[in-house]
Write a structure and sequence with these properties.
InterPro entries: ScdA-like_N_sf. This is DUF1858 domain-containing protein. The protein is an all-alpha fold and 66 residues long. Helices cover 61% and strands 0% of the residues. The protein has six helices and no strands. The model has no long low-confidence stretch (mean pLDDT 96).
Length: 66
């Protein structure tokens, strides 16, 4: 299970299918999240861009099962 303390880079390394989830947030962030936020935890990332943390974690956990 992916948690709020997981670092984006580690999530994508372990579960490459989650990359598309992060790319969907590029428009919200106004930049490439995979380029600028790789070393942030999920909690830090969602706080920076005012994103719903629980929603992101749900999407990531679904994507990793694919």
């Amino acid at each position: 299970m992916i948690s709020k303390d997981a670092v984006i880079l580690e999530v994508v390394e372990k579960h490459p299918s989650t990359e598309d989830v992060f790319r969907n947030y590029d428009d919200i962030a106004g930049k490439c999240t995979m380029c600028h936020n790789l070393f942030d935890t999920l909690e830090e990332f969602t706080n920076i861009y005012d994103i719903d943390l629980d929603d992101l974690i749900t999407k990531l956990n679904r994507a990793k099962q694919k």
